[in-house]
């Protein structure tokens, strides 16, 4: 069973937009200090799974859906604690983009997870039936 293509497209789009969003936030829109770009390096870990997400690699989608939660945590902390209104807005955007990626990745993986459970159940039944006949 092939998962809907729009979940894959949603995962790619939200990941690419999140990378651009974070770069813009930390370099142009609301850097912590004027001229400071060092915090923009936080996008580097997001570049690692990008190729696998584009290629529909199941393993990459699985682990990246867990790693992305670190960015959700950062967004929540900064939405709560940043003093600048524009920075809080950017943090809320980060939260939304992470949520979209997470949801799209899980919904894309759902049919694969169901198929894997079905195969494991069938294999277990086969093993149990051969044991009982001996």
From TrEMBL:
It holds the Pfam family DUF2069. Keywords: Membrane, Transmembrane, Transmembrane helix. Signal peptide: none annotated. The chain crosses the membrane at residues 7-25, 37-54, 61-80, 86-109. This is DUF2069 domain-containing protein.
